[in-house]
Amino acid sequence: VSLRGARILVADDQLDVARTLTEPLRAAGATLRFVSDGMEALDSIRAGGHDLLIADMKMPPHDWGGLWLLEQLKQRRYGIPCLVLTGEGQQRQTIEAMRFRGG
Amino acid sequence: MVAGLTMRSNSSAVRNLRISIGPDSLRVWPVAGRVDASLQSTIALFADLTVRLHISLDDNELLVRFIGAPDEGRGPIARAVVSALTPEASSLGASIANTLHDMKNQIAAARQASAGTATLTRTQRLGREFTASRHVDHAKALARQLQAAGSLQTSSEGVTELSAYLRSYGALLLERLPREFHVITRPPRTAVAVPVDEATLSAILDNLAKNTQEALPDGGTIELTAACEDAVVHIEFFDDGPGVPDAVVDALQSGRTVQSTKTAGNGLGLVGVRNLVHRVGGTLAYVADRGGACWRLSLPVAESTAAGGTES
């Protein structure tokens, strides 16, 4: 699969983990940009230039900063596709993420 | 009464009530007038909740016990009651959960890095192994923090003679730190032992040294001083860095978990130090007037030393 030309924003406070986990995307040709919290991600999305957001659920500015980010995107009607990346399998957060459009 | 929120309702039905909310009950008393006249207002207090109550009249207040948890309510009283009845996760528990979460992520990343290497070149494979190894090291470091915070370890056994130990620890620390660091060790003038084994004492000092290293990326000076005063040994760990924020010191000294953003740490390092020191009957204090960061560990003198200390 080629992802050449795809611009992906990755939001995760564990940047080393995020880099390793998204390495296959980079290897497939995607251009990755990393940010370490929801606020920074929101600023980057506002500035534009990304085709996809991959967000960790647990990151600043809140305990569940990824959910906060998705909620902000929904409120501001930003249309960027979102993928939630998390090691937490709790049903409640999963449902909330889907409510905020996270795939 | 269990300590809880004390509030005065703004609702017209309960305007004249004072309410103290505990984990499983309320106490209600009128601002003025007879307490038994407050019963109807007290019942009105819960009109927006689905809840079963037992209300009894005490001398000067109504005691309200909940039978079953209230459903989610929408009014300010309902929110306060629900909030008071919902056990809040302790900050230590939250820090431990966050650390476990980070450990899990590091292990997942290590697994990802080491998977599917069969078709890679030797150099690529070694690069992936290096990445996996780095993630495993991070996971191990987090496990050590959990251990120090007390979730995996229960006690310290043994005694450490401080003069020899601090000389040795200072030398090892100097070897371990980047060359931009200087370590000055001032052991106690008399032989003195503390009821802490060397591994525990090293875990305490390692945590403080790690904080110093993070606070001083370009290097600095660490002073490790110990002095005996009556039956207490004071060990001071000083660095000439920017010092520790007041919020961190306040949180630590009031027994709360140190709040920390995950990018800068999980707050368990200092909690681990505090717990280890407390576990051996000592105290941890921050000395704010030295122009850097200075932690003072006060430990009891071990019985053998207290009975017959000798000049070294």
Main attributes of the structure:
heterodimer; A: 103 residues; alpha/beta; four-stranded parallel sheet; 5 helices; globular; B: 312 residues; alpha+beta; five-stranded antiparallel sheet; five-stranded mixed sheet; 41% helix; flat; disordered N terminus
Largest sheet of chain B: 5 strands, antiparallel
Strand order of the largest sheet of chain A: 2-1-3-4
Q: Work out the helix count of chain A.
A: 5
- Beta strand count of chain B: 12
Biggest interface: A-B, 15 and 19 residues
> How can the largest sheet of chain A be summarized?
4 strands, parallel
Provide the low-confidence segments of chain A as ranges: none
Average residue-wise pLDDT of chain B: 73
**Percentage of residues in DSSP E strands of chain A:** 15-25%
Taking all Cα atoms into account, the compactness measure Rg of chain B is 27 Å
Using the CA coordinates, give the radius of gyration of chain A. 13 Å
**Helix count, DSSP H or I runs of 4 or more residues of chain B:** 9
Task: List low-pLDDT spans of chain B.
Answer: 1-13, 69-75, 84-90, 259-264, 307-312
The helix-and-strand class of chain B reads alpha+beta
Helix content of chain A: 40-55%
Biggest sheet strand order of chain B reads 1-2-3-5-4
Structural summary, described in words:
Chain A has 103 residues and is of the alpha/beta class. Helix content of chain A is 41%, strand content 18%. Chain A has a four-stranded parallel β-sheet with strand order 2-1-3-4, with helices on both faces. In chain A, helix 4 links the parallel strand 3 and strand 4. The mean pLDDT of chain A is 86. Helix content of chain B is 41%, strand content 21%. In chain B, helix 4 packs across helix 8. The longest helix of chain B is centred in the middle third of the chain and has 28 residues. Chain B is flat and about 80 Å long. Chains A and B meet through helix 1 of A and helix 3 and helix 4 of B.
